[in-house]
């Protein structure tokens, strides 16, 4: 099995409507939610419908103001001086001049010094660059940021000066039907594999020892790995002898890196996966119906 289509936008009707209207009314927006809830996918879809370009920026501690705004090329400055032609636009100016959307991923990982350069852009739609002068945003420019509020490692609280200038749209995990539809669309896998993967993934989110469970991306990876391992091991499907242990191997690979065990819990993600597999697919039980509710499923 191989993925057949990019991650589709399934569901998210209310979030789509709110984000679409926010962009139409010239609002800047923060998309907030755990990984895999469709933040960037939703934005790409809306931008494509509107015919707008999206300039993507990965937020991290290395994103300096110069990298975001742009900077003079030293060789060009030596040859021609500080003229506009010597300046190389960064992603911010590229989006401002090009009527585009600037998408800042991991907003809460960006240094405060870098975020501060956005305040005037958010308020006045312009920025002053030393030696270059004023740059005013073209019509259609918007700043869209994304953040995972549940990740405390390497992050900081976004200051009120930024938060007060942006709207906020919260995305959560979708229901089981939507997640099955997403995984099926991406993988083209049979329903029994899709249903099993989604049940296992959803169970990680409600496990007593887990601080953060897997997103639907984990279900996609699990389906692809499980299908491939069944083929490699000569097992006709999830009902074949030994398929449960094959599912365990696939789940270890697909989910262990996505599960965050709660503070103070001295267990491994693999031990949590063992618990969940025992609940969802008991050793002496039949392959579970993928339509059933997962243990601990909200």
UniProtKB/TrEMBL annotation:
Pfam family, one: AAA_5
Entries under Gene3D superfamilies matching the protein: P-loop containing nucleotide triphosphate hydrolases
Region of interest: Disordered: 278-298
Annotated AAA+ ATPase domain residues: 25-175
Domain of life: Bacteria
InterPro entries linked to this entry: AAA+_ATPase (IPR003593), ATPase_dyneun-rel_AAA (IPR011704), CbbQ/NirQ/NorQ/GpvN (IPR050764), P-loop_NTPase (IPR027417)
Gene Ontology MF annotations: ATP binding; ATP hydrolysis activity
Protein name per its UniProtKB record: MoxR-like ATPase
